[in-house]
Amino acid sequence: MGLMRTGAVIVAGAMIGQAVARRVAQHKDGSGERSRWLTVTVNAPPEKVDERLADAVADLDVETRVTPAPGDRGTEVAARLRDAPTGVVRRLAGEDPRQDVRQALRDMKSLVEAGEVVRPDEPTTGKRTPGGALVRLATRRAGGEGRL
After folding, report:
1. Type and span of the H or E element at 80
2. How far, in Å, CA of 39 to CA of 21, rounded?
């Protein structure tokens, strides 16, 4: 009787493991990510945002949504791709099309609030140092994933 119970526990564990693995694979391959909105709050009225938003996303296949931000604190702008990205390999290779949407929203926010796209300062020295390498890496990656 104990051998039969052990076998049942092993089979049940294998089935649960398989279900979990399937769920993780679906999450990692980008399926279901189409509906994920990328949102930014802009400190400006919706009329001012609308004109800049059209220019910012003109070459991207996205749907957008512009609503007043909670507490009358500007305008909330959301955008998402119409088609889902094509899997984890593309995203790992740095070809994730959502990065273009994220960058367009950042640039649009900067244009509306500051009048220009604000970029990090250039290094003050031409000498490359290990600490400078870390700063350059952080600066290159700053426009990608993360908060808007």
Report:
1. strand 75-81
2. 30
The residue count of the chain comes to 148
- Among the CATH numbers 1.25.10, 2.160.20, 3.30.70, 4.10.280, which is that of 36-116? 3.30.70
Where do we find the tokens 């273009």? 100
Contact assessment for residue 120 and residue 139, using Cβ atoms and an 8 Å cutoff: yes
Per-residue model confidence as pLDDT tens digits over 11-60: 777 788 887 777 766 655 454 555 688 899 999 998 888 888 888 888 88
Q: How far apart are CA 58 and CA 123, in angstroms?
A: 33
Euclidean distance between CA atoms 10 and 45, whole angstroms: 60
Q: First CA to last CA across the chain, in angstroms?
A: 59
pTM to 2 decimal places: 0.60
